[in-house]
């Protein structure tokens, strides 16, 4: 399964959630790879991790899907080829709502990006997770714009929401 973690703009929680999901999935005995497809600089990722960007994301995810049971992608915080490819390839997209900062324009851009991916990937599941205090309003606003999206209670219950069944 491919899980893509995406936000709109810079987001402190996005990389942390991607790392946490990959680590928890590895502990469950699965062969997991964390893929960095974010163009923003950040500290080096733990191993096993791979960095890809732009046009290479689609081909890399297709290639890696044959060698790993699960792939967790830290996608770009802006609309890009790599972000689109990661969203279209995903079985589940995880959205930390802290980057929205209660901004309706950011919420609309992110909802549009995910909605466009759903045109190519109609089975895409969406899990929205509030990551900070006071972040519930942003999560609810995004949830209202994405029909069928799930609201995770928080980062502690995210694993169960993403990897259910």
Structure description:
- This protein has a 7-stranded parallel β-sheet with strand order 3-2-4-1-5-6-7, sandwiched between helices.
- It is globular and about 40 Å long.
- It is α/β, with parallel strands linked by helices and about 160 residues long.
- Helix 4 (about 105-120) packs across helix 5.
- The chain has helices spanning about 10-25, 55-65, 80-90, 105-120, 135-145, 160, and strands at about 1-5, 30-35, 50, 70-75, 90-95, 125-130, 150.
- It is built from 6 helices and 7 strands.
- It has one domain: 3-Layer(aba) Sandwich (Rossmann fold), CATH 3.40.50.300.
- Helices cover about 40% and strands about 20% of the residues.
- InterPro entries: P-loop_NTPase.
- This is Cobyrinic acid ac-diamide synthase.
Strand order of the largest sheet: 3-2-4-1-5-6-7
Total helices: the number is: 6
Q: What's the helix-strand series? A: EHEEHEHEHEHEH
The CATH topology is Rossmann fold
Calculate the terminal CA-CA distance, rounded to whole Å.
Answer: 12 Å
In round numbers, the mean pLDDT is 83
- What is the CATH C level class, in words? Alpha Beta
Work out the helicity level. Answer: 40-55%
Record keyword descriptors for this entry.
165 residues; alpha/beta; 7-stranded parallel sheet; 6 helices; Cobyrinic acid ac-diamide synthase; P-loop_NTPase
